[in-house]
């Protein structure tokens, strides 16, 4: 059993796996074009070109759909931060460099198609959206800054994090599309969720291979990531408000995080069936198990109790955040 492999050694040990996974990804992924998904015929000029600026009545999206689309779009906008971290932890050469380039190019489509859809259909205020983009991208996001960088641990934390995060994003995208009440928006978000699923598989398989190469260190990274997980949208303007709406109405909530994101990946890695950990790896696995138990028995029920009370209060007040506007100006 290899122990405490550093960054270069880990990359070397896993390069054959990375090459296999890149080839698999290229064989199954399908090219698509953002412009094909945008209803351009619904567009019109804004005031700067002699048209009409945005007005809230022009949007045909519910409050929940707006919150989810903006959150997902601003998350995708921050691609430079994610690329910087992943490119820094992987090699620019060989299969690693090929993957980083391909992954970045595929992810860049996501913000393009979502923004074009929202602007053309006047789903949200484009000025507020642009201001939020500037703020979020200026600050960036470093979800792994608390962990050691420049060591093997940094690489393992990165691939462990994106194994979960890509799956979480897939679920958020898919559910967002279903909340929009628009088949075009649903088709867009479905397309993005397919990309995110393939990205998740790459990272999940790399991290799974890392568990075989360096079980203890990989297990520590997984436990650290799971017990302090943040979505990449954390820190964006209005993230708390929008995140609450999304959780409250089932776009992405704590039960989904546990049952649809954490547990499927953990089971795929056979975390609780492995017998190749030393005391160090066992301690990390025990820490993970305790966290998952608390999530299942305490945190999820508490969240659902609070959510149900809040929904009941809204219903009593006649508030329906899922209702689409009954009338809207033609676009």
UniProtKB/TrEMBL annotation:
Cofactor: Fe cation; Fe(2+)
Cellular component terms (Gene Ontology): cytosol
Species per Swiss-Prot/TrEMBL record: Segniliparus rugosus (strain ATCC BAA-974 / DSM 45345 / CCUG 50838 / CIP 108380 / JCM 13579 / CDC 945)
Free-text remark on how the cofactor is bound: Binds 2 iron ions per subunit.
Name assigned to this protein: Acyl-ACP desaturase
Family: Belongs to the fatty acid desaturase type 2 family.
Amino-acid positions noted as binding Fe cation 1 in the UniProt annotation, renumbered to this chain: 76, 107, 110, 196
Gene Ontology BP terms: fatty acid biosynthetic process
Pfam families membership: FA_desaturase_2 (PF03405)
Subunit structure: Homodimer.
SUPFAM superfamilies noted in UniProt: Ferritin-like (SSF47240)
Biased composition, class Basic and acidic residues, residue ranges: 309-323
Residue sites binding Fe cation 2 per the record: 107, 166, 196, 199
Entry keyword set: Fatty acid biosynthesis, Fatty acid metabolism, Iron, Lipid biosynthesis, Lipid metabolism, Metal-binding, Oxidoreductase
GO molecular function terms attached to this record: metal ion binding; stearoyl-[ACP] desaturase activity
Region Disordered, annotated ranges: 309-331
């Amino acid at each position: 059993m290899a122990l405490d492999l550093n960054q270069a050694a880990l990359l070397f040990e896993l390069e054959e796996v990375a090459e296999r996974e890149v080839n698999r990804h290229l064989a199954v992924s399908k090219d698509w074009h953002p412009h094909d998904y945008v209803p351009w015929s619904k567009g019109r000029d804004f005031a700067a070109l002699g048209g009409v600026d945005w007005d809230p009545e022009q949007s045909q999206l519910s409050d929940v759909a707006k919150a989810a689309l903006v959150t997902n779009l601003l998350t995708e906008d921050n691609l430079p931060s994610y690329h910087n971290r992943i490119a820094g932890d992987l090699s620019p050469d060989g299969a690693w460099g090929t993957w980083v380039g391909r992954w970045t190019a595929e992810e860049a489509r996501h913000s393009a198609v979502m923004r074009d859809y929202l602007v053309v259909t006047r789903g949200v205020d484009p000025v507020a959206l642009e201001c939020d983009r500037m703020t979020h991208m200026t600050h960036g996001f470093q979800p792994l800054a608390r962990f050691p960088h420049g060591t093997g641990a940094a690489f393992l934390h990165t691939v462990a994090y994106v194994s979960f995060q890509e799956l979480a994003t897939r679920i958020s995208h898919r559910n967002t599309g279903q909340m929009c009440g628009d088949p075009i928006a649903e088709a867009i978000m479905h397309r993005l969720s397919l990309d995110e699923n393939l990205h998740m598989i790459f990272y999940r398989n790399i991290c799974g291979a890392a568990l075989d190469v360096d079980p203890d260190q990989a297990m520590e990274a997984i436990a650290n990531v799971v017990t302090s997980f943040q979505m990449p949208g954390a820190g964006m303007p209005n993230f708390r408000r929008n995140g609450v709406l999304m959780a409250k109405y089932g776009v992405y909530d704590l039960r989904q995080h546990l049952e649809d994101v954490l547990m499927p990946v953990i089971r795929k890695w056979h975390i609780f069936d492995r017998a190749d950990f030393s005391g160090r790896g066992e301690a990390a696995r025990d820490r993970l198990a305790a966290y998952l138990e608390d999530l299942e028995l305490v945190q999820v029920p508490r969240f659902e109790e609070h959510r149900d009370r809040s929904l009941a209060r809204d219903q009593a007040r006649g508030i329906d955040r899922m209702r689409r506007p009954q009338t809207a100006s033609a676009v």
